[in-house]
Amino acid sequence: MTRINMFSLIGCLLYLLHFAYATLIMNEIVGPDSVESGSTDELILDCDFEANGEEDVVLKWFYNGMEDQIYQWIALNKNAYAMGSLKDLIDPTYKVSDDPNSMMRALRFKDVDSALSGNYTCKVDTADEVKWLTKQVIVYSPATSFQIFLFGVEDQFQGDEVVLCEATNISPRPDFSLHVSGSNGSLDDLELFNPIREEIPNEDDSYNVSIRISFNSSYLEPGTTKFSCLLSIPGTNYSDTRSMEHFVDYEEEPSPFELLNEEYASFNYPSNFTEESPSEDIENGSNRIASVVLLGCTLMFSLLLTM
Ligand SMILES: *[C@@H]1O[C@H](CO)[C@@H](O)[C@H](O)[C@H]1NC(C)=O
Ligand SMILES: *[C@@H]1O[C@H](CO)[C@@H](O)[C@H](O)[C@H]1NC(C)=O
Ligand SMILES: *[C@@H]1O[C@H](CO)[C@@H](O)[C@H](O)[C@H]1NC(C)=O
Ligand SMILES: *[C@@H]1O[C@H](CO)[C@@H](O)[C@H](O)[C@H]1NC(C)=O
Ligand SMILES: *[C@@H]1O[C@H](CO)[C@@H](O)[C@H](O)[C@H]1NC(C)=O
Ligand SMILES: *[C@@H]1O[C@H](CO)[C@@H](O)[C@H](O)[C@H]1NC(C)=O
Ligand SMILES: *[C@@H]1O[C@H](CO)[C@@H](O)[C@H](O)[C@H]1NC(C)=O
């Protein structure tokens, strides 16, 4: 017998066995992986299963493990029952279809808020089988505010510059990070800046998060440094960023021209989302020319001395 024939024979046997015994098939729990709190007025999780020729079908839903049963439907009955910790949020009269074999199998929540985040298990018992499926659902709330601030770049003293990112009232716990990239590329290791991270839980299970770094502008690469904060919630498509740019001049010391400009620069403290920091405007053709002229003079002066 060829190898192919053997495989088809085994395949055939498995196929027949499947029909002889496995008449309960759990397809999937149909519903969203994640949903924004308040964005919709109902959440439906449909336990899609097939129980061909099975008797005594009982469907149960559980929340976060198998201890907290929240729903039960005996397929011979017209009625289903909500129970457990989410009892008041479930609509036990919801019909997902008109088919008496499946109509009450779905969970419908009447309100969609973060209390519904969790793992939902749909378990089906029949006279001779028990099978179940689990699905995680994340109900999230975007940050009510998300900002990046750059402090201390307008004053002429370098060394007390600060970047602060903060996001408030976000749930569940987000991923929050700050990235610094200089004119030569990414300044990969944020830890060099000794970041101070804070994560404060609110009473409603949301979080206020912040990251702060202090730095000395004169230690940055000359050119434009970009600070970007990335906010996301794992398991959802939610993500958001805020960024600011900070320009560091090519000269070591502030030129007299820059100092002059400081007097005009209004101290809007903290600066907000405007992407260009005012110091960027100072870098200007005339500034460059000034330093070239200065360099030229110095060279000529040393030439004169050596003659
Ligand atoms: C839900 O399931 C995921 C993945 O299996 C697990 O990481 C998480 O802790 C569970 N959440 C709860 C609330 O049980
Ligand atoms: C920042 O760097 C400048 C130039 O190197 C230096 O003069 C200044 O003292 C530094 N400031 C702090 C707070 O370290
Ligand atoms: C960044 O670029 C400047 C100018 O091209 C160069 O002088 C400097 O050495 C570079 N710094 C690093 C860390 O590569
Ligand atoms: C989180 O931020 C909000 C909005 O700024 C504020 O009302 C709330 O008091 C903060 N929560 C905590 C625990 O600090
Ligand atoms: C993210 O968005 C895609 C496309 O809209 C969608 O298919 C996917 O289910 C979403 N993921 C989550 C976790 O919501
Ligand atoms: C942000 O800056 C702009 C222009 O500098 C100003 O008009 C605006 O009021 C500022 N917004 C906040 C929230 O400070
Ligand atoms: C550069 O500086 C000159 C002289 O102060 C000014 O007139 C000009 O508007 C500046 N240019 C830019 C692009 O800021």
UniProtKB/TrEMBL annotation:
Task: Please report a single Pfam family linked to this protein.
Answer: V-set_CD47
Annotated signal sequence range:
1-22
Query: What UniProt keywords are attached to this protein's entry?
Result: Signal
Annotated ranges, domain Ig-like: 22-134
Highest taxon of source: Eukaryota
SUPFAM superfamilies noted in UniProt: Immunoglobulin (SSF48726)
Matching entries from PANTHER family are given as: BEAT PROTEIN
Q: What is this protein called?
A: Ig-like domain-containing protein
Q: Which organism is it from?
A: Dendroctonus ponderosae (Mountain pine beetle)
